[in-house]
Specification:
heterodimer, A: 262 residues, alpha+beta, Alpha-Beta Plaits, 3-stranded mixed sheet, two-stranded antiparallel sheet, 7 helices, 10 strands, 18% helix, globular, B: 847 residues, alpha/beta, Phosphorylase Kinase, domain 1, Rossmann fold, Dimethylsulfoxide Reductase, domain 2, 5 domains, 7-stranded mixed sheet, 6-stranded mixed barrel, 29 helices
Chain lengths: 262, 847
């Protein structure tokens, strides 16, 4: 089995938001609601020091596709909805998912509820039972009656909800997920097999992200790790694993420093 | 963990009731299960189609991925040398702009004659026919009454087709009043390069070969004005050299930079002149560019004047004059006190910058502050002092791109129209107190934000009919309440826009605009990374509603109506726009829209015209459209060093003879002195000081006692020129503007200041300036200089749509638009609206 992961070069990253938003356009995730971000690619900013000696680091975050994934261990269905696939990706099968959220509860990088007014993130989000997915495109209200459109009308005209949804096929997941299931980054497995990188990686204007098999010493990702060493996140608070800590075996590595200041 | 009853039932069904047991079992991760029968995998078929993003001023060539007639993804144009095939975050927001649930879908007219913020206009849908007929009637009435000058065209975001509606058409209708948005945007910064080296435009940078980059009062990683290129190449300078950011708040560049100089707002001129002082005293200036003392002995000693005759100046003018008038006294210790930063840091940066020369640059930004002209002159003078301007590894004026002319209007402008255009322009440019010295000409530049003052005062006259497109000055102009009043006074206003904005509130007729990036034909020219480009915009999707391109199709439709009423000059002019391929005259609005673009770009794509061009040469119109772009060849450095600069002296002017001449001409026009001009325009300089880059103390509205904080206006990297506030994705990642909070609108305040005021993170606070108060959430943030508060522009809409506004029907805003509390003021030498430099003093209290 391969061990697919990602290497993110913080020296190149400018915290611009393109990976986060690019992912939303590729994977058609919903708007934030009910304490769920629905951002498969997101950010954790870390600020330290006091003015003027402050340091700001922006960490692009996503599912860490852990080797010992607690979310997989926690998945109660048989066969498991959350599972490791042949590439080592922590894959989620939305048909088998029962929406129990045990994965979300067990993941060190997830929270069951993200508070309003915080910049916290959660790798796994949950589409609640009975939730209207992409509700804004099902709303028939016209702000100026007869003059402005509505979400429902524009989705109907475009022929899809959401109207900008990228259509793709994958045996395990759908391009738009229904209610009653969790969802998270699947490393764009539907792209990898076609020789493409995950979309967050493809759209990164500074080419700071490289996905690949970390067990293959010839992969670009492995080479970068060999050159620079890397840090891995311990949780979703922006803390990193110590050198002797293994955690759940996260496979997203951060190389170099975001800020040039010492 | 939350477990609903339904999830428990679903779980029980799937696991035979053994959910809890299974959940606890430390089973090994299962390798895929279902994968026996392979289902299809991958993206559904689609096509990448070329277009151009105008979400900021970069004007990035892009491609939009279209699946089954829907726009689903955006990327940079793979052939672009300006962005290497990458767009910034704004590009992706295009999708939500196209599919915005609150887009205007039909022409509409106001049925409530009463106009004002919060007063329901009672719009009802009408046909394009009725809408254009009404506008034509209004224009014909002006002609009948011989007052065609009382027509005004307001331009916001535009394409390379703007020369039709904004340019020639206004003249053909008989009005001088084509008013652009330019001076609420960034005109001050052009003064820096113009009054030193004769270039009124934005600079380009050779980041691949740069060793020292000073980013000053801007944030190229997020805005202004080649963002993907800055994102891609700033890290090269970070790796190969040094990056410095000078800004009172920690911008994106400041977060990454080797050095951050968090100066007090509007003290930049002090730091710039101190750096120049240090460079001269330490003999670090470019001898090749500026020259040297005849005997090679450096006489630049602090406090001591130098004899001009001792210096043999080369490609610059007035270095010694500048020293004697300003620099001899502007040492780093003084600037450090003035700017509230470390003296050693100023010296270190000055030294590093000069030692890297000419592979270095000061990349400065808008500097829209009341005395900004002299600050940007000082910043740009540094680029001259070390010989970085027009040098490899430094900065330059950049490349243009091919464009062809439209048919001339001479035969179509009748005597009424000719007479009408001879009137003064409405914006009071060139008045004694508003020199607006664009390109050396008194009244040469637009004074956008002064239009409401002029309308309200009926000075020089009143405006009776106005058309605006892709603009929202009531929101984007400072002290926007003036626009509310002026537009309420305006008898007839037609607005061509995709969304119902604050300005649309005051319209009599509203016309739904197509979106430039995806629903119409147009073209734009821009530059970055040492290449210029002309880039196409095309209908990548079918229009979902009867929307029209403002700069072309609307013009045709209006012209048909004018012709039907006996005024056929405009339509006859438009009919002379013949398809360059077939020679056919347009017969419909759509054909006209297409031909106008083909004509404008002909030099780029017609093999007969581009055969000697050194850049890209498409083989036909079709080839051009499929590629979407023509890149210019790379910029050639040092031509200006060889051929001379476009200044009065043909030299790089530290003593600006060009500015002296412009100011003297303006003073002469008003029978007064240059000193008097400077007095009424609120500058401190008198005498010779007016002609050299120097520091002027910050001009500020409100006393420090009553309004202790300096307000910093910052821009969002998610802001599509003020048009993304109704897009949920802006809020999803608002924290990408450092210090801001997802889903919220906040004012950033330093924790030390907040503590003194008893303000906690997330508290609602009232922020008060001399002209008003706004309530907004406080965000405690170490990245803002104590004594300053920073607020991002973009939210605080009471119109736009259901996401942007809290309650659109009752005109209640979501968040706060701080333009409302920024007083109406200007850098009058350029006519630019003040919004930077902490010119607004504010008081902050817990709400």
């Amino acid at each position: 089995m391969a061990r697919y992961g990602m290497v993110i070069d913080l020296h190149k990253c400018t915290g611009c938001g393109a990976c986060g938003l690019g992912c939303k356009t590729e994977n058609n995730t919903d708007d934030r609601a009910d304490g769920q971000t629905h951002n498969w690619a997101d950010y954790r900013s870390v600020m330290s020091g006091t003015f003027p000696d402050v340091k700001f680091e922006m960490l692009p975050v996503l599912c860490n596709h852990c080797t010992d994934a607690p979310c997989v261990a926690a998945c109660p269905v048989t066969p498991k909805a959350m599972h490791k696939n042949a590439k080592g990706i922590t894959m989620h099968n939305s048909d088998r998912c029962i929406g129990c959220r045990m994965c979300q509860n067990s993941c060190p990088y997830s929270s069951t509820e993200i508070k309003d007014g915080s910049n916290d993130y959660s790798v796994i989000s949950f589409n609640d039972f009975g939730k209207v997915v992409h509700a804004r495109y099902q709303d028939q209200t016209e702000v100026i009656k007869g003059c402005t459109t509505s979400g429902a009308e524009i989705a109907k005209k475009a022929g899809m909800t959401p109207p900008h949804a990228t259509s793709y096929e994958h045996p395990d997941y759908k391009s738009v997920r229904p209610d009653g299931v969790v969802e998270k980054c699947i490393l764009c497995d539907h792209r990898l097999d076609n020789g493409q990188q995950p979309y967050c990686t493809t759209v990164c204007p500074s080419e700071a992200r490289v996905a690949g098999d970390l067990d293959d010493p010839n992969s670009q990702a492995s080479k970068l790790l060999k050159q620079y060493g890397g840090r891995r996140l311990k949780n979703n608070k922006g803390e990193f694993l110590g050198t002797s800590e293994k955690g759940a075996g996260p496979n997203v590595y951060y190389i170099r420093a975001y800020s040039a200041r010492k | 963990m939350r477990l609903t009853r339904r999830s428990f039932i679903k779980a029980s069904a799937a696991t035979g009731g053994a959910m809890l047991a299974a959940g606890c079992a430390a089973s090994k991760p299962a390798t895929s299960a279902m994968g026996k029968t392979e289902k299809a995998k991958g993206e559904a078929a689609g096509k990448w189609m070329a277009s151009t993003c105008q979400g900021c001023t970069t004007w990035c060539p892009i491609e939009i991925f279209v699946q089954n007639g829907r726009a689903v993804k955006v990327r940079g144009n793979q052939l672009s040398k300006a962005n290497d095939g990458y767009c910034c975050v704004r590009g992706h927001l295009i999708l939500q702009q196209i599919y915005d649930p609150d887009r205007i879908k039909t022409p509409m007219k106001r049925t409530n004659p009463k106009k004002g913020r919060g007063i329901d206009p009672k719009f009802v849908p009408i046909s394009w026919d009725e809408a254009t007929d009404t506008i034509a009637d209004k224009l014909m009435e002006l002609r009948k009454n011989n007052e065609t000058n009382k027509y005004m065209l307001l331009r916001g975001r535009y394409s390379d087709q703007n020369g039709i509606l904004y340019g020639d058409y206004t003249k053909m209708l008989g009005s001088p009043n084509n008013i652009s948005h330019s001076s609420i945007c960034a005109e001050v910064e052009k003064m820096g390069a113009y009054y030193t080296e004769g270039y009124f435009g934005y600079r380009d940078y050779d980041l691949d070969n740069m060793k020292y980059l000073i980013v000053w009062a801007c944030d190229p990683l997020s805005s202004n004005r080649q963002i993907p290129n800055a994102i891609r190449r700033t890290n090269k300078v970070l790796e190969n050299g040094t990056v410095v950011a000078i800004d009172p708040r920690m911008s994106n560049t400041a977060a990454k930079a080797h050095e951050w100089l968090p100066v007090k707002p509007a003290t930049d001129g002090a730091v710039a002149t101190a750096m120049a002082h240090y460079i001269l005293v330490n003999g670090l200036w470019s001898k090749e560019f500026c020259g040297d003392f005849k005997d090679g002995k450096n006489r630049f000693v602090k406090g001591q004047s130098v004899n001009e005759a001792d210096f043999d100046e080369k490609l610059t003018n007035g270095l010694v004059k500048w020293w004697n008038l300003v620099l001899k006294d502007t040492d780093p210790a003084w600037a450090a006190r003035e700017a509230g930063i470390d003296k050693a840091q100023i010296e270190r940066v000055a030294r590093g910058f000069a030692q890297a020369a000419p592979n270095c640059a000061v990349w400065y930004g808008p500097n829209m502050q009341p005395r900004g002209t002299y600050a940007v002159m000082a910043m740009h003078a540094l680029n001259g002092l070390v010989g970085a301007t027009d040098s490899e590894g430094g900065l330059c004026t950049g490349m243009g791109a091919p464009s062809s002319s439209y048919p001339k209007i001479d035969d179509f402008q009748d005597p009424i129209a000719k007479a009408g255009t001879k009137n003064k322009k409405i914006d009071q440019r060139g008045y004694l107190n508003m020199p607006a010295l664009k390109e050396g000409k008194s009244g040469g530049g637009v004074v956008t934000n002064n239009v409401p003052n002029a309308i309200l005062a009926s000075d020089p006259y009143d405006i009776k009919v106005a058309i605006g497109y892709f603009c929202n000055f009531n929101f984007s102009g400072t002290e926007g309440a003036r626009w509310d009043k002026a537009l309420a006074k305006l008898p007839f206003f037609a607005h061509i826009v995709p969304m119902f904005s604050e300005m649309t509130y005051f319209a009599d007729i509203v016309l739904p605009s197509s979106l430039h990036h995806s629903e119409q034909w147009s073209s734009v020219r821009s530059k970055a990374n040492l290449h210029g480009h002309v880039s196409i915009q095309q209908p990548v999707i079918d229009r979902m509603f009867d929307v029209r391109a403002p700069e072309t199709e609307f013009v045709w439709m209006l012209s048909e109506k004018l012709a039907a009423k006996g005024f056929d000059n405009p339509l006859n002019w438009l009919k002379s726009f013949k398809d360059p391929e077939t020679g056919k005259a347009p017969t419909t609005a759509e054909e006209f829209g297409l031909y106008a673009v083909k004509i404008r770009t002909q030099k780029a794509w017609d093999p007969a015209m581009n055969k000697d061009y050194k850049g890209d040469r498409p083989s036909s119109w079709t080839d051009f459209i499929s590629k979407g772009i023509v890149n210019s060849p790379k910029f050639t450095f040092r031509k200006k060093w060889a051929d001379g600069f476009k200044t009065e002296t043909k030299k790089f002017e530290f003593y600006s003879v060009t500015l002296k001449k412009a100011l003297e001409k303006h003073a002469e026009k008003h029978n007064t002195t240059v000193d008097k001009v400077l007095e009424v325009t609120n500058y401190e300089a008198r005498g010779e000081l007016a002609f050299v880059p120097h520091y002027e103390a910050p001009r500020r509205h409100g006393s420090r006692t009553a309004y202790p904080f300096d307000l910093i206006d910052m821009k969002s990297r998610l802001n599509r020129e003020g048009r993304s506030a109704n897009n949920t994705w802006l809020y999803s990642f608002k924290q990408c503007d450092p210090g801001d909070v997802n889903e919220q609108d906040v004012v950033q305040i330093n924790p030390a200041d907040a503590r003194k005021l008893g303000i906690k993170d997330g508290d609602m606070v009232k922020v008060t300036s001399t002209i008003g108060s706004l309530k907004v959430k406080a965000r405690l943030w170490e990245g803002v200089r104590p004594g300053c508060v920073a607020k991002c522009y973009g939210q605080g809409h009471h119109a736009m749509g259901r996401v942007a506004a809290k309650d659109i029907t009752r005109a209640i805003a979501r968040g706060a638009n701080f333009n409302e509390i920024m007083p109406d003021d200007y850098d009058r030498l350029s006519g630019s609206t003040a919004r930077n430099g902490g010119f607004t003093g504010v008081r902050v209290e817990k709400a």
